[in-house]
Design goal:
Blueprint (H helix, E strand, L loop, with lengths): L8 H15 L1 E2 L2 E2 L25 E3 L8 H9 L4 E3 L16 E2 L5 E2 L8 H20 L13 E6 L3 H4 L2 H11 L2 H10 L19 E5 L6 H14 L3 E6 L6 H11 L9 H5 L4 H18 L3 E5 L3 E4 L11 E4 L2 H18 L4 E4 L8 H6 L5 E3 L16 H11 L4 H7 L4 H6 L6 H13 L2 H5 L1 H25 L5 H4 L30 E5 L3 E10 L4 E11 L3 E6 L8 H5 L6 H4 L2 E2 L3 H6 L5 E7 L2 E8 L2 E8 L2 E6 L2 E5 L4 H4 L1 E4 L3 E2 L1 H14 L6 H5 L1 H4 L1
Length: 686
């Protein structure tokens, strides 16, 4: 079973900064494909007591589990980081594959895959590396666009959240100074200038409670009351799509959008909170938060629980979780219903089927943050998020507004209705604001405080205007989302493929990478000792035709299956392409999986390879190479192997794997350009 392993902070920094210098990229995302703010527009929003530079963020999920995920999301313009939800059970066995993006998006993962202490470290490492990247001065950041909020997420019951382990988790994010100080000391000497940066130590003081399907309403209320009172956290509660009720949800899903093959079990409704129950605990929690001087809001929405009637996931999984376009419509209808119930009393966070085509509309509804997951699992990966701001900025420019509040007021032409709701304005102020709506400086006419109130009032009208339109929009319907990615019918091999490069950006953990291998034709030679000497026979050739080759860093691969979904060839890059382990210990522990690693024993550097289940090794032996494995140990000169062979072998010996190990060594472990392997152990790889 795949298992994520944390990566050393020193190596993480070395990997990022060397790649920035060598390739103008960070974790395989070209700097030119990021988003760094707009000098002419202020995209800042209010999230609890904070003012992040943009409402966009990655949703708690596969894009926020490890340090490099956070960095990639930040480079793409995300400024509200919903950290991956953690729980007391931190040794989960998650089915593989676990993410199915063939059409709209399904998954069977639901919590962190790291230990709690490791999760904290990853979040702090990511935040620190972001500060280091800022300090390089090599990113074209607009003034103020660095402001970032980290929002922690926990679940799923009160007993677990009150456990000592989760208490330490929360405390560590509220005060990360010991972790920051430890990681400062780990920075390599070549980057010592970054040891004294002013790293964030109060990493998070907000929390989104993930109410897993089936969490009792009274349990939700007790958890949030505890977090508000005992931990003094500003909180959001993530709510579930079943709040729509079975009739309305199925009407939208089956009737309006046409997803007739998606079956929502009746039990999903009976074990979840009803609308009346939600109304009660949200009202009481809002009052409690106000009395405590805290902030409280809601989030729409969690994934939709459905029956697993597909063949992608293991048959043991009876249920799976739907995301993507259909969830967007369901969640938007919940936003509308919630605002009809509560008006503008509660801030709403949103995550459901967000993409470049609807991000600006979601922002126009005053939703903060607007977070994304499924769309970033499509080809392009994190770079897709970097383009979300384009339509938003274009609309702001066309409307003549500079701020998000100004945009909310003017986005859908509902500003006059929102202004009418502000009954306490004097005539002069009202007249100035009304005049600015048509042709004037909205921000100057209202001022920040009034404009914020005006935007909140207008957001209610924008919601009523927009949700019926989005519900009927064909882009969210089954017909527009039923076609899976195209497959060519060919099968992946260890070397060479169609070189589409899709497997790299679709991996949320950046586990897939490229390396350069000179095209070559290597005769396949078998040797055998006949008693008098070595004899050889040829059996074809191993040919490498493409310089760009693809590989997988096992430490960051959880075998989610997403690269397999989008690879035009069959087999899955994570399974077929060369797999590299960060340590020889892991290489041995994950036997019999094929893969490669290096180790140094008694000063001798060895390249380890498991090919077709056989464990092999090469090491330098003077001017020759020692090649060993089950049933043989020989030394030879690779340039003239038959004439220089010495040693023993039980039966016929194939020399082809030796050449593969030598290629792998030169192209990856000892490569002149940085990768995860040589960044982690440069003294070993060299």
């Amino acid at each position: 079973m795949a298992e994520l392993r944390p990566y050393p902070f020193a190596a993480l920094v070395r990997r990022a900064l060397r790649e920035l210098d060598e390739r103008g990229a960070i974790f395989d995302l070209p700097i030119a494909k990021g988003f760094y703010g707009s000098p002419a527009h202020d995209l800042a929003v209010r999230f609890h007591r904070h003012a992040p530079a943009s409402p966009l963020g990655p949703a708690a999920g596969p894009q926020t589990q490890m340090a490099q995920n956070l960095v990639l999301a930040w480079l793409a313009g995300c400024r509200v980081m919903e950290l991956k939800t953690v729980q007391i059970k931190d040794e989960l066995v998650i089915p593989r594959p676990c993410i199915d993006m063939q059409t709209v998006g399904y998954n069977v993962e639901w919590s962190q895959e790291l230990r709690l202490e490791q999760s904290v470290d990853e979040y702090v490492k990511g935040a620190m590396l972001i500060e280091i990247l800022r300090a390089t001065g090599k990113l074209p950041l607009a003034p103020g666009f660095e402001r970032t909020v980290y929002d922690m997420s926990v679940g799923y019951d009160l007993a677990g959240i009150q456990s000592p382990a989760i208490q330490r988790f929360i405390a560590s994010l509220k005060d990360a100074r010991p972790i920051v100080d430890r990681l400062r000391a780990e920075l390599p000497a070549e980057y010592a200038q970054y040891r004294d940066l002013d790293y964030p130590t109060k990493l998070a003081d907000t929390l989104t409670l993930s109410t897993f399907h089936g969490c009792p309403p009274d349990e939700i209320e007790r958890i949030l009351g505890y977090l508000l009172e005992e931990h003094q956290l500003d909180c959001n509660v993530k709510l579930n799509p079943m709040l729509l009720g079975p009739a309305r949800l199925r009407e939208l899903l089956h009737g309006v959008m046409g997803y007739k093959d998606v079956v929502v079990p009746d039990s999903a409704f009976t074990r979840d909170a009803s609308w009346a129950q939600m109304r009660g605990f949200v009202d009481r929690l809002g009052a409690k938060a106000a009395a405590l001087g805290r902030s409280f809001g809601v989030k729409f929405t969690n994934t939709l629980i459905v029956e697993n009637n597909r063949t992608f996931f293991p048959a043991t999984e009876q249920e799976m979780y739907l995301s993507g376009p259909p969830l967007h419509v369901l969640a938007m209808n919940l936003v509308a219903a919630f605002r009809q119930e509560f008006g503008a009393r509660f801030a709403i966070s949103f995550s459901a089927g967000i993409d470049r085509g609807n991000f600006a509309d979601a922002v126009a509804l005053g939703l903060v943050p607007v977070t994304v997951c499924s769309d970033l699992l499509q080809p392009g990966g994190y770079a897709r998020a970097a383009r979300y701001a384009e339509p938003l900025i274009a609309r702001m420019t066309a409307l003549g507004v500079r701020t998000i509040d100004g945009y909310v007021v003017k986005a859908f032409g509902q500003g006059a209705a929102g202004l009418a709701d502000l009954t306490d304005l004097d005539d002069a102020t009202r007249a100035a604001c009304a005049a600015a709506l048509d042709d004037g400086d909205l921000e100057a006419a209202a001022g920040p405080a009034l404009l914020a109130r005006w935007a909140a009032a207008t957001a209610l009208h924008n919601t009523a205007h927009h949700v019926p339109r989005v519900t009927a929009d064909a882009r969210y319907a089954y017909a527009a989302n039923k076609k899976p990615p195209r497959k060519l019918g060919s099968h992946l091999a260890l070397f060479d493929c169609v070189t589409c490069s899709k497997c790299i950006p679709v991996c949320p953990n950046d586990a897939n990478f490229t390396f350069a291998l000179a095209p070559a034709t290597q005769p396949i030679v078998f040797v055998k000792h006949d008693g008098a000497g070595w004899v050889a026979r040829e059996a074809g050739a191993l040919t490498v035709t493409r310089e760009v080759q693809f590989a997988n860093f096992a430490d960051f691969c959880n075998e989610c299956g997403n690269c397999d979904v989008f690879c035009p060839e069959d087999g899955g890059p994570y399974a077929i392409k060369p797999r590299f382990f960060g340590s020889a210990e892991d290489w041995r522990r994950f036997a019999p999986r094929d893969g490669f690693a290096i180790e140094v024993v008694a000063g001798v550097r060895r390249v380890l390879g498991r090919i077709d289940g056989r464990e092999l090794a090469i090491e330098a032996a003077g001017q020759r190479v020692r090649y060993s494995g089950p049933g043989f140990a020989v030394t030879l000169d690779p340039a003239d192997p038959v004439a220089t062979l010495d040693g023993w072998a039980d039966g016929e010996l194939d020399l082809t794997p030796m050449h593969i190990l030598r290629w792998i060594d030169a192209a990856v472990f000892a490569a002149p350009t940085v990768n995860y392997l040589n960044a982690a152990a440069p003294e070993v790889a060299s």
